[in-house]
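Re: the request from the purification team.
They wanted to know what the chain is likely to look like in 3D before they choose a buffer screen. I agreed to run a prediction and write the result into the notebook, where they can find it.
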Amino acid sequence: METVAAPSPGKFQILLVDDNEGDAKLFELALREAAPRVKLYWVGTASEGIEYLQQKNHFRNVGPVDLVMCDLNMPAMTGFEFVAKVKSDAALKITPLVIYSSSASLVDIRRCYLLGANSYISKPMTMGMMVQQLKALVHYWLEIASLPGPAMLD
C-alpha cells in the first residue's frame, strides 16, 4: 500500500483510513481482486486522513481521491470525529465518505449518517464476502454515481 505517491491519471482513487494494518491489508487484497484498476491509499490515523485530504505536510501534491473509506474505532480521533471534521470542511464535504466498520450498531449507523456520512458498510466475516462488497461498492460509487470531482483546495 502507498501513502504518499501521487495518483496516476485514469484510475479511481480510494483513501482507506484504518488504524488496523491487518484489516487494511485484507482490504487491499480484496480490492485488488474486486477492482484491479482502483488505486488504494492507506493511512493509519484519522488525523493523517484529514492531512491527506487537505494535502498538508507530507501529503502535499498527492492529488485528490474519488472515495474515502473510514473505520470507526480508532485511537485519538475516532471515525465519528473524522466524519464530522470532513463534512464540516467546505473544501472536503463533497468527497464521498463511506464508513467501513465492524460495528453493526444501529446507534453507530444513525450517528454516522447524522454527521454526514454518505454510506455505512459493516465489515464482512469472510474474504469472499469482502470481495463481493467491494465489487458492489466500486461499481456504484465509481461507475454508476455521478461524482462532484476533486475539491479545489487553497
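For the purification team: The chain has one domain: 12-144.
Please add any questions underneath this entry.
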